[in-house]
C-alpha cells in the first residue's frame, strides 16, 4: 500500500506501511499470543548490563567515536576470528552501527546512487524494500527457486543490468530458514566480482545454524574484499535487540564510505550500551542453538499436524509455512487468527514484492517461550477445527 504523497517526498511516500505493524496493534488490543516476531527469549549477559549501567553514571556517557568504541570493534574482530577464522582489522574495517538495520542502510547508501538497482532474493526480510527505497535505489526481486528456496544464480545473472550496483543477501535467511551453502554464496560472490557489484550480506542469524551446519559468509573469501560488506548484530547473539548495536565489516575503502554515511545519520550507537557490550567475553555469547533446534523441531511437527506445508529451516529463527491447504488467502487467515483465536502470525504477503505471491505463506518464529507457543498452537488447532466444521 502506497501512502498519498502530500508534503512527503516521493521516496518516503513510496514506502508502504508495514503490514505486520497494523496486525501487532490489533494483537496487542486483543491480547493475542505473538509467535510472529523474532524477539530474543532471554536477557542480555549480566556483564553487559552491569558495565552499561556503570557507564551511565560515569564519564562514559558522552559521544563515542562515530566508528564505535575501539574496545567493541576489537571484541567483534576477536569473535570473527574465533568463530570463523576470519581476520579483520578493527581499526579500519569495522564500523559499529545502530543495529544491523542501520548497517544495511549505510551499506546500500555507500554503494548506490539514486536509480541504481539492488538485487534482492525473494522472499525477503520485510524491511529491505523500504530501506533500499529510502536510499533512492530500486530493489530488483529475484525469486529463490523451488520448494527448497535455492539461490538461482542464473536468475541473478539475468537480473543484472547496467544499473545494478549490489546484491543484498540475508543468510541464514528470514523468512525461509535457508542457510545458503558454499556453492550458492561463493557462486554469488563470483558473479558480483565478474560484474563489479558489491555483495551486502545481512548475517544477524550467523550463530543460528542447525543440524551441524556451519554458517557460510562471503567475508574472507580470497581476493574478493573489495566486493563484500558483511552486516552483523548483537541483537540476537547477546539477546539485546533493544540496545541497537550492530556493525558493518568491509575493506578500508568501503568502510570509509560507510562511515561517511554513519557520521551524518546517527553519529554513532549509544555509548553506554557500547561500553556494556565491550565488557562481554567469548563465553557470554548465548549459545541457544540446541534449545532452538529442539523448539524448531517441535514447531515444525506441530504445524504439520495442523495441515501446514513446512520445509525444515536450516538456520535463523523462523519457519515459512505453506498455508494453501488451509485457507485461500494467508492474509485473511492471519487476520482471523488474531481476531478470533488470539494468535499473531506474520502474513506471507510481507515478504514478496507482489503481495499475491505471498498469499500461500505464513511465518512463525520458534524462539519464543515454549509454553506460550504451545498455547498459541492449541488455539490455532481449535480455530481451524471449528472453521473446518462450519465449511
Ligand atoms: C534479517 C534481519 N535483519 C536485521 C534485523 C534487525 O537487526 P537489528 O536489531 O540488528 O537492527 C532482523 C530482525 O528481525 C532480521 O530478521
UniProtKB/TrEMBL annotation:
Pfam families: Aminotran_1_2
UniProt xrefs under CDD domains: AAT_like
Domain of life of the source: Bacteria
Alphabetically ordered keywords of this record: Aminotransferase, Pyridoxal phosphate, Transferase
InterPro entries in alphabetical order: Aminotransferase_I/II_large, Kynurenine-oxoglutarate_AT, PyrdxlP-dep_Trfase, PyrdxlP-dep_Trfase_major, PyrdxlP-dep_Trfase_small
Cofactor: pyridoxal 5'-phosphate
Coiled-coil ranges (or none): none
Domain Aminotransferase class I/classII large residue range list: 33-379
The protein's name: Pyridoxal phosphate-dependent aminotransferase
Amino acid at each position: 500500500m502506497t501512502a498519498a504523497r502530500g508534503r512527503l517526498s516521493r521516496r518516503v511516500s513510496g514506502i508502504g506501511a508495514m503490514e505486520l505493524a497494523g496486525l501487532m496493534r490489533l494483537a496487542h488490543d486483543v491480547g493475542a499470543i505473538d509467535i510472529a516476531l523474532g524477539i530474543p527469549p532471554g536477557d542480555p549477559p549480566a556483564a553487559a548490563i552491569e558495565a552499561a549501567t556503570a557507564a551511565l553514571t560515569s564519564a562514559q556517557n558522552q559521544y563515542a567515536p562515530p566508528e564505535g568504541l575501539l574496545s567493541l570493534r576489537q571484541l567483534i574482530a576477536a569473535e570473527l576470528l574465533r568463530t570463523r577464522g576470519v581476520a579483520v582489522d578493527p581499526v579500519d574495517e569495522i564500523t559499529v552501527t545502530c543495529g544491523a538495520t542501520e548497517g544495511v542502510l549505510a551499506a546500500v547508501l555507500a554503494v548506490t546512487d539514486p536509480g541504481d538497482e539492488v538485487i534482492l532474493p525473494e522472499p525477503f526480510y520485510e524491511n529491505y524494500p523500504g530501506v533500499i527505497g529510502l536510499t533512492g535505489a530500486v530493489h530488483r526481486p529475484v525469486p529463490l527457486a523451488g520448494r527448497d528456496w535455492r539461490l538461482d544464480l542464473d536468475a541473478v545473472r539475468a537480473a543484472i543490468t547496467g544499473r545494478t550496483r549490489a546484491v543484498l543477501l540475508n543468510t541464514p535467511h528470514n523468512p525461509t530458514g535457508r542457510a545458503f551453502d558454499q556453492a550458492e554464496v561463493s557462486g554469488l560472490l563470483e558473479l558480483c566480482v565478474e560484474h563489479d557489484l558489491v555483495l551486502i550480506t545481512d548475517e544477524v542469524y550467523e550463530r543460528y545454524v542447525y543440524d551441524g551446519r556451519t554458517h557460510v559468509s562471503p567475508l574472507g573469501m580470497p581476493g574478493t574484499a573489495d566486493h563484500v560488506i558483511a552486516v552483523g548484530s548483537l541483537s540476537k547473539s547477546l539477546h539485546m535487540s533493544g540496545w541497537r548495536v550492530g556493525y558493518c565489516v568491509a575493506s578500508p575503502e568501503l568502510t570509509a564510505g560507510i562511515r561517511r554515511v554513519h557520521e551524518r545519520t546517527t553519529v554513532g550507537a549509544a555509548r553506554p550500551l557500547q561500553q556494556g557490550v565491550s565488557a562481554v567475553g567469548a563465553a557470554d555469547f548465548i549459545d541457544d542453538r540446541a534449545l532452538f533446534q529442539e523448539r524448531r523441531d517441535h514447531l515444525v511437527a506441530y504445524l504439520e499436524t495442523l495441515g501446514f506445508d513446512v520445509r525444515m529451516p536450516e538456520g535463523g529463527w523462523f519457519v515459512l509455512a505453506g498455508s494453501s491447504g488451509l485457507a485461500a488467502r494467508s492474509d485473511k487467515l492471519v487476520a482471523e487468527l488474531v481476531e478470533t483465536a488470539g494468535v499473531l502470525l506474520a502474513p506471507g504477503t510481507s515478504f514478496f514484492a507482489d503481495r499475491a505471491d505471498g498469499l500461500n505463506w505464513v511465518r512463525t518464529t520458534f524462539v519464543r517461550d515454549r509454553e506460550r507457543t504451545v498455547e498459541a498452537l492449541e488455539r490455532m488447532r481449535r480455530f481451524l477445527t471449528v472453521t473446518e466444521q462450519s465449511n
